[in-house]
Structure formats: structure tokens, C-alpha cells
């Protein structure tokens, strides 16, 4: 076969004869168009050719060799068939994780990372169980070869990744010795960012008539775009994203994730936190896609969560920010992503979330974009409070400038005369009512309690525009995780209520009912778990009995709660009232006048028989 026989004009992964299970994984991961290194490497590797590739980190090399070589594995055989050599532990883990993801639908597939510093006994145990793919650093691979615990005589392929880094770190002799242990008839792929003489000599000795590929470095001027990164730590990425959206002044934001499923999940979570967000992915019809883009242009939508392919060609002047929620697989994708902002002479901002293992890719992105990417700290609780207050003031000014307020001025005058109250106090009371859903001030820190992620995520409840009501559509699992974090178990007691998912209840319904009926703040409600026909909620351990008895009779979604400590039986006769379907008739008519709540140790002293 000659080089001219190799198909390189690849526009889609569907054109490549990969194994069906690999195609399925590629589709689920949102891969549609191969990068240049992938388009040029995959066909010859599928054809069994040796390959010498010159390409930078971040160009998509891992998929370039993984997809074709995984397609040729015999997964029913548990001995090593593919060996990948990487210069560092971090890169070995990164490659192993990527391969596990690509091979997710190969039954019985096992990939084993081997590197120094890891427990040897654990590695020996896993080697005995068998693995089709081994990814390791040269020193640890040599160690296992000397011990006889790793045998390479049945290898079908070897990949040497970042050979020039091997040379710099003094591993190049070890790489050559390992290649000599491999069978004579095996396929070899060697990748290197540069081609020093020592690397070329190894390629000449160990590769047979290789296909040579050279991918030029992409350098793009991004003068109109400010680039920053946040080192992922501590906070969950969703909480971090919410903080940024609360603190940044933006018109529209494009958030990039890797998969189609993630676009929908993240858009729903942002909607639940009060943002006008929508997904954009390849599964959408052209009509839906056009409608979403038009909503962004008109200002009906502020945030779009998209995959790389779905956002190609997107040209909306309102997009002031691009946030890389997931790091792209290659630098080409990053350049395309951030190019969606900073258009038509306007300034734009690009922010990328980077985990410790992705720092190498960050360096490659800096080279590709031609800019140093500066680290940022997340906005503090005070920053977000200040931003909310600023937006609140802007809204007041906007209303005074645009609305007819004569009726309301008369209403306030009447109230002030009737009650003999300072107008400032009336304005303060109205402001308090308006900000109930999104408090302007961060909640006070409970005495004796350290700050936690849950406390910080309590800020994550507001969108960009004050007039939007938050849509509480987060799953109970996420609400549970947020509320449970860093809370002492002896602070809470778990209660059961007879309303669940089948009755249409959501966490917000439960929080709202209990805070309104029990005169508790939302911070005094712990974890909530919603099941099909009932729910569990953590409430303060010292909840007074009169208050518990009152909450028994509260209704949500046309159902009486029958709240009681988890494990206690239903009150006598309650089961019969509820019936097998869980319906318990209609809720009582709301009473007119002032509702009387049971007195608790949290309420202020009564004066003249009324709560102050």
C-alpha cells in the first residue's frame, strides 16, 4: 500500500471504518469532525501502517492513535495487546482515562496505567487479572519487564507519545530497550512535537516504512479577547460558574461542554438558578437551533450551553463571554470556541476551567492563542452581594424612569398616614419583600461554624435580571449534596412527609412550605431526598413539638404532609384517609385574616398578643 492509498480527506468520524463500539462512544462524546492530526493518522493506523507524527500537545493525538488501535483489539483475550509509553505519570493517567472513555462499549475492556510512585502490590494484582492495554512511564515499564511481571511477546502495537519529552527527561534509552522487547511484527506509532536527531534515529531503527505526518502549529491573534483560567479546586464547577455569572457584567455568554447530554443538563441547572439559559447541540433540529440563536440575538436568552460542533458558525454580536466549562480536547477547538466573542471590533472575555491534570493542555493553548492566560480568583461572597445591590439599585432607577407610579405613591402616602411610619422604613420593608428569593446580603455565618462550600453556594440563587423568577428544576440529588455538605449530623433530625415525585413535588415546594409555615429560614432546612411517594427532609434537632404537630397538617400539592420523624408510623387513621394512591382529598380552604403560628424559641417575644 502506498501513501496515496491512504484516505486523508476526512470530514466526519462517520467516514472512518472504526469498530461499531468505538463509533458509538465517539458519537456520545460529541466528536464529529476529526482534527488534522486525527484525519491524517487514523486511516494509516487502521491500515496497519507504522506512523511518525510531528504534532504539538493539544492537537488531539490521544484520539488519533487510540481510536484506530482500540478498534483492532481482541477484547476476549486478557493479555497486553497495546502498549503506550508516556513521559510522565500525569500524561499516562490522562491517556488511560481517555482510552477508558473511548472503549466504554467494548465488553471486558481493561486499561492499566503503570507509573512510579504507585503501590507495586496493587499493580501486580491488576497485571495478574489481565488487561488488553497498558499505559505507562518508561521506568516503571522497565521495572516490570525485569521482574517478569509484564510480558510483551503478544503485543500488536506500541505507541511512543511525546518522544522529545522522553529525550529531555533522559528516558530515550529506556524507550529503545522497551521497543526491543516487543515482537518483531508489531505496529509502531511515534509522536513528537519536535524531531531532534536522537528521536529520528529511534524512528529509523524501529519503524518500518512509516507514514510521516507533520501538523503545523496554529497561532492566532486574539488581541480583542481577554483570556483567563480558573484552577478547579474546592468548589464544584457549577457553583463556580454561578459565581462568575453573578459577578461578571455580560450581555450574553456561550458556555462550552464536551457532550450533547451535558448541554441539556447544565442548561437546566442554570435555569433552576434563575438564569435565562438554553442548550445548543447536534441533536436539535435546524428550526430549534435557529430559534435558540434568534432568542440570543433578541435578548430573550442570555446563556447558551453548547458543544463545539453546534456552535460552529455562530455569529452573535451580544456574546461578550465564552466560558470553557470543560477543557476542549485540542487547541484547534479552543481557538474556534473563543472566536465566538470579541467580534466586530468589540472586546470579549474567555474563561477556561482547568483541573490539575489539564495544566499541560493549558500551556499548549497559550502557545496556540499567542497569549499568556492569567489565573483568576472566584468572586467572594461580598463581591456577589455588592453586585446584587448594584443591580437592585439599577432596577429601582429603571422603574422610576419608565413606569407611571402615581397610584403607588398615593398608596404609600395613605399607609404612612395610617400607620405613622417613617417612609424610609416602608421602602425598606418593600425592598425586603422584593429580595426574598435572592437575598441582597449573604446569609450570616452561624456561630461556631466554619465557612463551607454549602454556605458559598447559598449565594448561587440569582440570575442576571431581577425580574426573572427562578425556576426550581434541580434534581433532588444535587439539592441533597449542596445542603448536606459540611453539616454536623447531630444538628439534624430526619423527618418523613407523605408527598413525593409522583405528586409533582420539587425541593422548592418543600422549602417554601416549611419556611412559610414554621417561621424557619431556608438555612435551617437540611438535606432533602425526594422519592416516588414520599420525601425525607432534615430539620433542626431541637424543633419544638408544637411546631412538629403544626407541620403535620400542612398541605403541599393537594396532599397533607403528615410530617413525623422518619421511622415512626403514620398517625391513626391517616393511612385510610390517604388511600392507596396517596390522595387525601382536597386541602382545607385558606383561612382569612392573620395566620397564627405555634410559638417557637426562634420567634421574638410577643407583645400585646401579637408577634412583633
TrEMBL record:
Gene3D superfamilies: 3.30.70.330, P-loop containing nucleotide triphosphate hydrolases (3.40.50.300). GO terms for molecular function: ATP binding; ATP hydrolysis activity; RNA helicase activity; RNA strand annealing activity. Residues 438-493, 565-612 are annotated as: Disordered. One of its GO terms (cellular component) is cytosol. One of its GO terms (biological process) is cellular response to cold. Its main location: cytoplasm. The keyword RNA-binding applies. It is found in: Cytoplasm. InterPro entries: CsdA_RRM, DbpA/CsdA_RNA-bd_dom, DEAD/DEAH_box_helicase_dom, DEAD/DEAH_RhlB, DEAD_box_RNA_helicases, DeaD_dimer, DEAD_helicase_DeaD, Helicase_ATP-bd. It comes from the Bacteria. It is an enzyme of class 3 (hydrolase). It catalyses: ATP + H2O = ADP + phosphate + H(+). The keyword Nucleotide-binding applies. Keywords: ATP-binding, Cytoplasm, Helicase, Hydrolase, Nucleotide-binding, RNA-binding, Stress response. Transmembrane segments: none annotated. CDD domains: DEADc, RRM_EcCsdA_like, SF2_C_DEAD. Residues 11-39 form the DEAD-box RNA helicase Q domain. Its EC number is 3.6.4.13. Residues 586-599 have a biased composition (Basic residues). Residues 42-213 form the Helicase ATP-binding domain. Residues 446-456, 464-493, 601-612 have a biased composition (Basic and acidic residues). Residues 237-384 form the Helicase C-terminal domain. A motif (Q motif) lies at residues 11-39. Belongs to the DEAD box helicase family. DeaD/CsdA subfamily. DEAD-box RNA helicase involved in various cellular processes at low temperature, including ribosome biogenesis, mRNA degradation and translation initiation. This is ATP-dependent RNA helicase DeaD. It comes from Desulfurivibrio alkaliphilus (strain DSM 19089 / UNIQEM U267 / AHT2). The gene is deaD.
Amino acid at each position: 500500500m502506498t501513501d496515496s492509498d491512504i484516505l486523508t480527506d476526512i470530514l466526519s468520524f462517520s467516514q472512518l471504518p472504526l469498530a461499531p463500539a468505538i463509533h458509538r462512544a465517539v458519537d456520545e462524546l460529541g466528536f464529529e469532525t476529526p482534527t488534522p492530526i486525527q484525519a491524517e493518522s487514523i486511516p494509516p493506523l487502521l491500515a496497519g501502517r507504522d506512523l511518525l507524527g510531528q504534532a504539538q500537545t493539544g492537537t488531539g493525538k490521544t484520539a488519533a492513535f487510540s481510536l484506530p488501535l482500540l478498534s483492532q483489539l481482541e477484547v476476549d483475550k486478557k493479555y497486553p495487546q497495546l502498549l503506550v509509553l508516556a513521559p510522565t505519570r500525569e500524561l499516562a493517567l490522562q491517556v488511560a482515562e481517555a482510552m477508558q472513555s473511548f472503549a466504554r462499549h467494548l465488553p471486558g475492556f481493561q486499561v492499566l496505567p503503570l507509573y512510579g510512585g504507585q503501590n507495586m502490590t496493587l499493580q501486580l494484582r491488576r497485571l495478574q487479572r489481565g488487561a488488553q492495554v497498558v499505559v505507562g512511564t518508561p521506568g516503571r515499564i522497565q521495572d516490570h519487564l525485569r521482574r517478569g511481571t509484564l510480558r510483551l511477546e503478544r503485543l500488536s502495537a506500541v505507541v511512543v507519545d511525546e518522544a522529545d519529552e522522553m529525550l529531555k527527561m533522559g528516558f530515550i534509552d529506556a524507550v529503545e530497550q522497551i521497543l526491543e522487547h516487543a515482537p518483531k511484527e508489531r505496529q509502531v506509532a511515534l509522536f513528537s512535537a519536535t524531531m531532534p536527531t536522537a528521536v529520528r534515529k529511534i524512528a529509523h531503527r524501529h519503524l518500518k516504512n512509516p507514514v510521516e505526518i507533520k501538523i503545523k502549529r496554529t497561532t492566532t491573534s486574539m488581541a480583542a479577547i481577554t483570556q483567563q483560567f480558573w484552577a478547579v479546586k474546592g468548589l464544584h464547577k457549577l457553583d463556580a460558574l454561578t459565581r462568575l455569572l453573578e459577578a461578571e457584567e455580560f450581555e450574553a455568554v456561550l458556555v462550552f461542554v464536551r457532550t450533547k447530554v451535558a448541554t441539556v443538563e447544565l442548561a437546566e441547572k442554570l435555569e433552576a438558578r434563575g438564569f435565562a439559559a438554553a442548550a445548543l447541540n447536534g441533536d436539535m433540529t435546524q428550526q430549534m437551533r435557529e430559534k435558540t440563536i434568534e432568542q440570543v440575538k433578541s435578548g430573550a436568552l442570555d446563556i447558551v450551553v453548547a458543544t463545539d460542533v453546534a456552535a460552529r458558525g455562530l455569529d452573535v454580536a451580544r456574546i461578550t463571554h465564552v466560558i470553557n466549562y470543560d477543557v476542549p480536547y485540542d487547541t484547534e477547538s479552543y481557538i474556534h470556541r473563543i472566536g465566538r466573542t470579541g467580534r466586530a471590533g468589540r472586546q470579549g472575555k474567555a474563561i477556561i476551567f482547568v483541573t490539575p491534570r489539564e495544566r499541560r493542555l493549558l500551556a499548549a493553548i497559550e502557545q496556540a492563542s499567542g497569549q499568556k492566560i492569567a489565573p483568576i480568583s472566584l468572586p467572594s461572597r461580598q463581591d456577589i452581594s455588592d453586585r446584587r445591590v448594584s443591580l437592585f439599585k439599577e432596577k429601582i432607577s429603571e422603574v422610576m424612569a419608565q413606569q407611571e407610579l402615581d397610584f403607588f405613591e398615593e398608596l404609600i402616602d395613605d399607609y404612612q398616614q395610617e400607620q405613622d411610619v417613617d417612609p424610609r422604613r416602608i421602602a425598606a420593608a418593600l425592598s425586603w419583600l422584593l429580595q426574598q428569593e435572592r437575598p441582597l446580603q449573604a446569609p450570616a455565618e452561624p456561630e461556631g461554624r466554619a465557612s463551607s462550600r454549602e454556605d458559598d453556594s447559598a449565594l448561587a440563587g440569582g440570575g442576571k435580571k431581577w425580574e426573572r423568577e427562578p425556576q426550581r428544576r434541580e434534581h433532588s440529588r444535587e439539592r441533597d449534596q449542596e445542603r448536606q455538605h459540611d453539616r454536623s449530623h447531630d444538628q439534624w433530625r430526619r423527618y418523613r412527609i407523605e408527598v413525593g415525585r409522583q405528586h409533582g413535588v420539587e425541593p422548592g415546594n418543600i422549602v417554601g412550605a416549611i419556611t412559610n409555615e414554621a417561621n424557619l429560614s431556608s438555612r435551617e432546612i437540611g438535606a432533602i431526598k425526594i422519592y416516588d411517594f414520599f420525601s425525607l427532609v432534615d430539620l433542626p434537632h431541637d424543633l419544638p413539638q408544637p411546631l412538629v404537630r403544626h407541620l403535620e397538617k400542612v398541605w403541599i400539592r393537594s396532599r397533607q404532609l403528615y410530617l413525623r420523624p422518619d421511622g415512626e408510623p403514620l398517625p391513626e387513621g391517616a393511612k385510610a384517609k390517604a388511600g392507596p394512591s396517596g390522595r387525601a382529598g382536597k386541602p382545607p380552604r385558606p383561612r382569612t385574616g392573620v395566620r397564627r403560628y405555634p410559638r417557637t424559641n426562634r420567634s421574638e417575644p410577643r407583645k400585646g398578643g401579637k408577634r412583633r
